[in-house]
Amino acid sequence: MAGGGDELKLLGMFASPFVMRAKLALSFKGLSFEDVEEDLANKSKLLLESNPTEKKVPVLIHNGKPVCDSRVIVQYIDEAFSGNGTCLLPADPYERAVARFWAAYVDDKLLASWLQAARGKMEEEKAEGLKQTLVAVETMEAAFKTCSQGKPFFGGDRVGYLDVTLGGLVVWVHAGAALYGMRLFDDAKSPLLAAWVERFGALDAAKAVLPAVDRVVEFAKMRQAHAAAPARAGGN
Q: Could you tell me which residue ranges the GST N-terminal domain spans (predicted)?
């Protein structure tokens, strides 16, 4: 229970960075919730009914009403529970717009290219993904410098909306290094973001909901093995 008669249920999958993002928002707001783990190979009736358009996680169910899409969920949590915990979205309309812009950039440019670099089927595809990832990292490094104004977080002295948005990738930054030998943020090319990853991950509210890196690595290895199995079966 979230308190005050509010019931919160989060439909998700532990390794999803988008689900981690929603969990982080709930944690920084100090909200308790029912964590419902979905089998994405056999999606529950509740998930299919709660998000019939995309049939994806996360879905936040607040007093029986579903809210979909991780960035929308974070904004909803901040607005619906404005009196709880950390205020994530800036009060100033312009600053709020800037935070939303960069949050979209994280998903549309940074994460998309990083996934292409890691999972591309052809070497050319991977190389192009890596190229675009490096551009996106450089852009986000500059965005951090501007948004933080020399303070610890994108939100300044405290965690904000953009910190939570990018925070969903923190575990995968470490897991990606273990899996692919590719660290998204490093001390050489993006020292501000590399320091931010460690700083954010050390926060109690983050540690309370983020899964262990080893668990995510094992999940990714199992998924890779499963994906490779049909190819091996079809070979000579």
A: 6-85
Strand partners, 24: none
Task: Looking at the structure, tell me whether residues 48 and 125 fall in a common domain.
Answer: no
Residue type, 79: E
CATH of the domain at 133: 1.20.1050.10
Q: Which amino acid is at 115?
A: L
Q: State whether 15 and 125 are in the same domain.
A: no
Instruction: Give the angle 35-171-33 at the CA atoms, nearest 5°.
Output: 15
Q: What is the CATH number of the domain that holds 65?
A: 3.40.30.10
Residues with Cβ < 8 Å from 192, sequence gap 6 or more? 141, 144, 145, 148
The whole-angstrom separation of Cα 236 and Cα 233 is: 8
Q: How far apart are CA 188 and CA 186, in angstroms?
A: 6
Reported as a single tens digit per residue, the pLDDT across 51-104 is 999 999 999 999 999 999 999 999 999 999 999 999 999 999 999 999 999 999
The model scores a pTM over 0.90: yes
Residue 4 pLDDT: 61
Q: Does residue 119 belong to any structural domain of this protein?
A: yes
